[in-house]
């Protein structure tokens, strides 16, 4: 039987949640049913995600996009679609502005776009116009949380949007290479240290500035408390300046981009996320899978993941005092910390596994293909 050809298109395979989700989807799709290829708008970054694709024998076209608007992308994407003849094109983030003309020109049967953030924040004004046209011409948006669905209705006036919650390979975040004690010794932390960890891009959306301010307000006064920030981005210099301003250079640690995330989570005590907005953050799921309690701002799809005071603590966004208070609560109550973490792990194992998400995508792909066939559309 001929396999269904699926082409995934994304700006790059960096370290963000949308990138991890896209790679995991490709990795776990049924290879007997689907022939999968991918387009990265930019050049190779030599990341762990790209290594996964290579190990899975999934071909990737790297288009070498320049920063800003790059009209060459229209022709390069068109050439690939014309040659590969995909039955399904699945886009992510802002790429539709370059992909839409070829989707329509070559009458690609199934066109889907996963919306990884609330619609108000996903793309700029030009992107919103392109998405409005795309959704009017047969591109199916896929939401990752109820709040994202509501935002799509608000911004684009569309309803009955497919909702597929993100998923993660739960077992991966439960397998560690070194023990909690070994990791701490290797990285210069003490056995008795209480480690808060944030894993995210250092970007305005994630608002790590609030996190540092909250930590400085009270938790930092505990002798053994430490804050670890994992990731990189345009905010790093400013965040380091805020750390110096509070004289917390020996309390707040910037580890940069890391590949040992399961080990870091295993060695930490509490995961913290201080975002101003979110879609359905994978980092929260990953922390819960590792059995860590989560303190997070109640934005986007976060309340759909965390049961307040059961698997973690939700605090209002942009509220330094509330975040600081929640951090203090867990430093001073180790039993609560353990209880929240155990329940978080239980929920993650039941609800967040990647297999659930992949089956839902496969079901959506098949239903859209069958719908096209019933309408008499050619599958190329």
TrEMBL record:
Gene3D superfamilies: Glycogen Phosphorylase B. Keywords: Transferase. InterPro entries: Glyco_trans_1 (IPR001296), Glyco_trans_4-like_N (IPR028098). Residues 180-346 form the Glycosyl transferase family domain. Residues 15-171 form the Glycosyltransferase subfamily 4-like N-terminal domain. The keyword Transferase applies. GO terms for molecular function: glycosyltransferase activity. It comes from the Bacteria. Pfam families: Glyco_transf_4, Glycos_transf_1. Signal peptide: none annotated. PANTHER family: GLYCOSYLTRANSFERASE. This is Glycosyltransferase. It comes from Thermoanaerobacter siderophilus SR4.
């Amino acid at each position: 039987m001929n396999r269904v050809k699926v082409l995934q298109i994304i700006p790059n395979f960096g370290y963000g949640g949308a990138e991890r989700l896209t790679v995991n989807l490709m990795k776990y799709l049924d290879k007997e049913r689907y022939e999968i290829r991918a387009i990265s708008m930019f050049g190779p970054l030599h990341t762990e995600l790209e290594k996964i694709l290579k190990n899975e024998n999934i071909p990737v076209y790297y288009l070498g996009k320049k920063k800003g608007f790059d009209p060459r992308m229209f022709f390069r994407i068109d050439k690939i679609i014309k040659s590969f003849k995909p039955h399904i094109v699945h886009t992510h983030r802002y790429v539709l502005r370059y992909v839409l003309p070829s989707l329509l020109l070559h009458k690609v049967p199934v066109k889907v776009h996963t919306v990884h953030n609330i619609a108000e924040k996903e793309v700029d004004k030009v992107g919103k116009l392109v998405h409005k046209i795309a959704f009017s011409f047969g591109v199916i948006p896929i939401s990752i949380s109820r709040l994202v669905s509501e935002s799509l209705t608000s911004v684009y006036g569309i309803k009955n949007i497919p909702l597929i919650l993100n998923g993660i390979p739960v077992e991966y975040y439960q397998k560690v290479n070194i023990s909690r004690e070994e990791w701490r010794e290797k990285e210069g932390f003490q056995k008795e240290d209480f480690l808060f960890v944030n894993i995210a891009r250092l970007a305005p959306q994630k608002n790590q500035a609030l996190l540092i301010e909250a930590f400085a307000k009270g938790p930092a006064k505990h002798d053994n408390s430490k804050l670890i920030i994992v990731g990189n981005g345009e905010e790093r210099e400013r965040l380091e300046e805020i750390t110096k301003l509070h004289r917390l250079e020996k309390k707040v640690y910037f580890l940069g981009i890391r590949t040992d995330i399961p080990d870091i989570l295993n060695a930490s005590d509490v995961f913290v996320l201080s975002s101003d907005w979110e879609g359905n953050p994978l980092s929260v799921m990953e922390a819960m899978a590792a059995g860590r309690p989560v303190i997070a701002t109640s934005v986007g799809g976060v309340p759909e993941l965390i049961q307040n005071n059961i698997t973690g603590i939700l605090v209002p966004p942009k509220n330094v005092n509330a975040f600081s208070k929640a951090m203090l609560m867990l430093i001073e109550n180790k039993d609560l910390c353990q209880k929240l973490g155990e329940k978080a792990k239980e929920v993650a194992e039941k609800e967040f596994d990647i297999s659930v998400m992949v089956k839902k995508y496969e079901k959506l792909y098949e239903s859209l293909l069958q719908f096209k066939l019933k309408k008499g559309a050619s599958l190329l």
